[in-house]
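In full, the data.
>
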Amino acid sequence: MSILIKNTRILDVIEEEIKEDVDLYIEGNKISKIGKNLTCQADTLIDGRDKLVTPGFINGHTHLGMSLLRNFADDMELKTWLEDAIWPIEAKLTPEDIYWGSMLSMAEMIRSGATCFCDQYYEMDRVGDAALEIGMRGILTRGLIEDDDKDLKLEQTRALYQNYHKKGNGRLRVVPSPHAIYTCGEDYLKEIISLAKEMDGVINIHMSETIKEVEDCKKDHHMTPIQYIESIGMLDLHVIAAHCVHITEDEMDLVKNRNFYPIYNPTSNLKLASGFTPVQKMLDKGIVLGIGTDGDSSNNNQNILEEMHLASVVNKAVTMDPKAVPAMEILKMATIHGAKALGLDESIGSIEEGKLADLVIFNLNSSSFTPRNNLISALCYSAQEEDIESVLIDGEFVLKDRELTKVDYKQVLKEVQECMDQLLQR
């Protein structure tokens, strides 16, 4: 299959600009040519005169199956929220619940322009099944908590890697994922580090999300959380580190030249009152950040465009600096820097010849983009989900003219509601 988009605009996150009046030729699953007045023969021709093409957005941290718990438990602090509300009902979730919950989350992400995710949950084979069906790219990480089933969970991670890693034409990856340093003891963390080295050398973990986590780590280990994971060898890996709300400047200096990638989750951090991630300080030190929604019960949606908007404005208020974390930095977090954080920047994250065709097509004939003063600003400060006309993943339309192409959206909504109704009766 080939697609030619004529006379369009593209967001170039490498050059940090909008390129005007260019043609984009997609052949198979890759971007084949970018230029002016291309005459390539294509199966599908798109008039791009009133459109803007961006790289697919990357949701660097989420818990997809939790969409069933949207608006279920709110207005609580993290420990109470987890232990008293979330974990008890999660124990009743079935694999089928998680499949449909994940499918709904992926539908939400696609409709808001996300083409890739990093998910930490369980029953991850069913999450993988949903991703294969709807056509998404993603990293599957089975959340590992130390309990009586800790060894079984490691085996489940190995089996997941064997059965789903690089499936779907390479769209899926599998990464080991300790939940956090406060739910895994040191020996168990070291086992997970060893497992990660057996695989591709990547690990995914919640890190420094709350003050309590930091203070407990200091009390137990006489170190801050990032100093602690360095002491056990985790920083020798590629670390996807969700949150990093309470990272210190000393820790920033420790990781700035390492493969350590914080994932910024502004809505979840605000809603759970975890604090304000020092995003500008990390940027100033050259640290590469991604951005994520977190799960539906702490956000409460998977709208990556909304997350980008919040991230682009809240840091200005926190730092009392209107120049802090400008729109282009947020767009990089959601594209090329998010791809680097997940170890995928050689294949996705920017619109370049030879890269995979994971793309979002915005319709500029909307109030959000009118007048067309600054399209980079518009993407962060005014763009809405309904402005997204189409989404391609791996060169295929997964959303076309605002309709999902591979699943029945209304059926997904129906199935999720039925799953939740049954869950509440268990």
The mean pLDDT is 97.
